[in-house]
Amino acid sequence: MREYKVTFLPDRKEVKVEEGTTLFDAAEKAEVYINSMCGGQGLCGECRLQVLSGNAKADKYAIGFFSVEEIQKGYVLACQTKVEDNLEVMVPARSRLEMEKIITEGTLAYSEPEKVSVHRTSRQPMYPFEPPVTKVYLELPPPTMKDNISDIDRITRELKKKLAFSSFEISLGCLQNLSDNLRQHQWKVTATVARHDSIGRLLQIEGGDTSEQNYGLAIDIGTTTVVVQLVHLKTGKVLGVEASHNLQARYGEDVISRMVFACTRGSLKTLNEAVVANINALTRALARENGVKLEDINCAVCAGNTTMSHFLLNLTPCSIRMEPYVPTAAIYPQILAREIGININPNGAVEIMPSVASYMGGDIVAGILTCGLADRTEVTCLIDVGTNGEIAVGNNEWIVCCSASAGPAFEGGGIKWGMHATRGAIEKIEIKDGQVTYKTISKSKPRGICGSGLIDVIYELARNRIIDQDGKFNPITSNERIVTGDGDTEFILVYPEQTETGQAVTIAETDISNLIKSKGAVFAALKSLMDYIGMSFNQLEAIYLAGGFGSSLDARKAIAIGLLPDIDLHKIHFIGNSSVAGARMALLSSAAFEAAKSISRRMTNIELSNYPPFMSEFIAALFLPHTDSKLFPSVHY
């Protein structure tokens, strides 16, 4: 079969591929990452490329994603276009998978000084400083005729004096060369011990005192991003943090499309290798920046949704997305790093934060641990808005939770000019006296609009009576920014001459409809939970908003469009990346990790697809702010 050369601009990356290869696959081979929400099925229209020279066979059905002008300029969908010639293609700005504005830290929302851990800060978890992996320096008495027990028994005897374990699990690797090691170092060695339930797991024995060289990783495996923190396990200090886009995104933007890829069109191994590659690359960078040897990283705690945890552990995820929505596991075993290819100490212990159900994962459990929801007598709420709106409500006696399919709108998906929170994304907008002002990430020329900006747009259009409360453009409003194009009515946010692409950034009536459905799903889920437990919103002591979307959200505007309940703004708290914060808490305290397992076991998950009141609540929420104005007494349009 003939081979052709494909050159991707603007980076000028070249690759040779066989005739008939899709441009999407060619881009992957060239390590050119292109936006895709559907994983290459031709459904989302996000993987746009412009063919500048050469002939390519484009699928005739893909033209529906482009205007006549774009088709004439050579725009195609990468996943639906096959290589039949030497090609030169441009990856447009909106199709590039660029680094997001990633939230790499979470805020601990409470502190209890009397229970503070040893690395004292003002906001500290209420768990003792007791990492799951510790290094213990031992000066052993040499054997004698009266004390001639085996070498390993000599070590465990001394460890029992220092650690609260009644027994130890010992691997063959610890026994091999142990005799020589002890004698060469005059019976002075350092033992690395992992807590495994109530048993000490002996990971390795090194000559001399290496107790200071003990590091761990707190890892947030998000659907969109991966965040890794390097932590010194002797002091609890965070030495550094690195983040990147989740490499799985090329196979689908959300967990459903990735599960479809893994179970029908691709392989589970591909997705597993992608996320492991993410973790290894970030870990290498952290180790290099801080002068740390990879073999001195002895522990990792990972938090992610149920699907991400399955991909990391190479567990089949197929039953997660199909009724009755059953994961392979919710509580995961402690594993060794070498078992899944994480490049730290091969014998390093890896813990996965426990999940609750198919769509309530370890990231939410980590968030509950972070905000202290499960430790208080008062009832509080945690909300993490993404493709799924994951919600937990409860206190130290009970917790109920649910996951609402909010869709990808708040992450830019399904919105004509929607995009992730990357360079050039509009994140703030105000409309006053007919003038539109905006703020973009990195102060760059506008390329599109991200989640927080979309909330602002809906609010500002409604406040200025440009759209009615059903989301339709007001027919009696005369505004030069309202135009009709491609069969849809749009409002021009930024004129072509002001944008990076040279095209107007707009918000269409269909976009507004998608956003109203997304906000409606989140609010209806929360309202369903509150009705289920028989409480009103005003009885909540606090609402904690987690994740990157929450960090830049204007709570006042979110209330005004009916995304959040109409409560005192002082009760709403942004806690950032609570997933990585919870993972770090578990990394620094075995008690915190045990608490996470306890939390997951006592969470009651409400499956909204089988909960009849939810659909009624959802329909009622398809209005700005809601069909029941009594729920939003402070909102007036």
General description of the model:
The protein has 637 residues and is of the alpha/beta class. It is built from 17 helices and 29 strands. α10 crosses α15 and α12 crosses α17. The longest helix has 25 residues, at 509-533. The protein starts with a strand and ends in a 17-residue tail after the last helix. Residues 110-125 have low confidence and may be disordered.
Helix content: 25-40%
Strand order of the largest sheet: 14-13-12-15-17-16
**Major sheet:** 6 strands, mixed
Strand content: 25-35%
Radius of gyration: 27 Å
Number of strands: 29
User: pLDDT average, as an integer?
Assistant: 89
Oligomer: single chain
Shape, please? globular
Number of helices: 17
Low-confidence stretches: 110-125
- Going by helix content, strand content and strand pairing, the class is alpha/beta
Number of domains: 4
- N→C terminal distance: 64 Å
Keywords:
17 helices, alpha/beta, Nucleotidyltransferase, domain 5, 637 residues, six-stranded mixed beta sheet, 4 domains, 25% strand, Ubiquitin-like (UB roll)
